[in-house]
Amino acid sequence: MSTSVSKIVPFGSGGRIVETACRSLSIAATGLNELESRFGQREFAATFLRLVGVLMQVRGRVIVTGIGKSGIVARKMTATLTSTGTPAIFLHPADAGHGDLGMVTPDDVVLMLSHSGESTELGPIIQYCKRFAIPLLAMTARAQSTVAQAADICILMPEVQEACPNALAPTTSTTVQMAFGDALAISLMEMRGFSADDFHKFHPNGRLGAQLLKVRELMAKGDDVPQVRQDASLLDATIEMTRARLGGTAITDHEGRLIGAFTDGDLRRAVTAKQNLTEPVGRFMTVTPQAITPDDLAHEALHVMHERNIMLLFVCDRGRLVGAVHMHDLLHAGVA
């Protein structure tokens, strides 16, 4: 049963509600116009070009982060970047200090969103970037904020009027953030020459053939698969990871069975804890790591990677290590 406006609001106030909605849209449009006008300013345009240049050259991923409403925008930006040819992943600040910082590698860059630039939850990520020389890119509206001062490149967003009458709920500011994220993604997309065909490869409605690929068709095999025994030293494991360039190495027993995994993040934590590189890697490995079989579909492997926030899966046939598959290889093949 339908409910008339007069039954849920005082009679005669319907027009006022419509006016409020239109006013909100008008305020949002003003904010977008202010953002657009920023690109006409030489300093802002130059900063934007530097930002694009860094993202074009990144060898790893764009780690997008933010808290609260900025975090929601960051998630959307991550999805847009990934689907338009820029590998990106969202890092929740609340999880960063509980081990998830280990997924940030020296090949990555961090893109941090914070309207105020003073969210305390972002502190550990800022410190981590400074400690390990990870490029920190930022979007904030406050030039003197902690985030702005810590960033290597900072995009100063316009100070806009919130549509919220109490100026409390982020409304216009998040709209402007979202629009900037889209503008950034499309700029990168055009710079890469990312075509409509490429776009379809990254989506479920893309080419059927990519969705039917099996892991065995995309995995590294033979000597290309990094592996060491659990009594190998941390140094030996590091050398093996460097040789294979997959961001990790399998730990196998004398029968070639997968018993553990050791990643760049594990190595970083060991070095940070001042562990001796002659220590056996078995002390620091992840026991019984996630694995997949050669006959599993590639898109299932990608789903596992997204679900577990990992970039590398080892491939086993009846327990024996036979391969390794990296997320970049799946994405390059058009798997979605």
Automatic annotation (TrEMBL):
Keyword list, A-Z: CBS domain, Isomerase, Repeat
Domain SIS residue range list: 51-194
Residue ranges annotated for the CBS domain, each copy included: 219-279, 285-336
GO MF term list: arabinose-5-phosphate isomerase activity
Pfam family name, one: SIS
Matching InterPro entries: CBS_dom (IPR000644), CBS_dom_sf (IPR046342), GutQ/KpsF_isomerases (IPR050986), KdsD/KpsF-type (IPR004800), SIS_dom (IPR001347), SIS_dom_sf (IPR046348), SIS_Kpsf (IPR035474)
PROSITE patterns: CBS, SIS
Gene3D superfamilies found in the cross-reference section: CBS-domain, Glucose-6-phosphate isomerase like protein, domain 1
Enzyme Commission (EC) number: 5.3.1.13
Family note: Belongs to the SIS family. GutQ/KpsF subfamily.
Name of the protein in question: Arabinose-5-phosphate isomerase
